Amino acid sequence: MFTPPARQDSGSGNTPGLISMVVDEALHEGFGPAKHTTYRLTTTLKKTSTTSTCRKRFSHFIALRAAMVEAKPGLVIPPLPEKSVMNRFESDFVEDRRLMLEVFLNRVVNHPVAVLLPALAQFLGWKEDICTIINAEMGSFVLPRPQARRPHPTRASAREPAPPTHNREPYDALLSDTMGL
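RE: above sequence
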């Protein structure tokens, strides 16, 4: 059974713990080959206690992750649990998946770049008031600029000729004697 990491009050974003996600209330919907499980997703902004709720199925999470990767190719998006065809309606499987989806969403909504992606706001059904608060709190996040590389103080400059390594003649002679060259 999946054990989620311990909950922390601070996320990894610019404003720690601004958003909390809860994934609960798994429901089996549809019949036959169209049968699937949906989960209730509840977003809570901790500062204002504003909440937003929607229902999504696992394939929606896959589409969300793909949209986020496409929007920001270099951004590290947490992985989703594996898709399964067998036993997907058993209570242990549904509960494990629910926990993993909750961990996924909490990591995404507390990431300073991922939380600002329009695909996430659309996926979670965030209204303008929630988006405004998130943009005000996290929209000021700026990725740090990479520092210019300074030459290593003990290494010679690339313009200076490389010092001789060592005399290879004895090694070459030994090699040719032992290999019959």
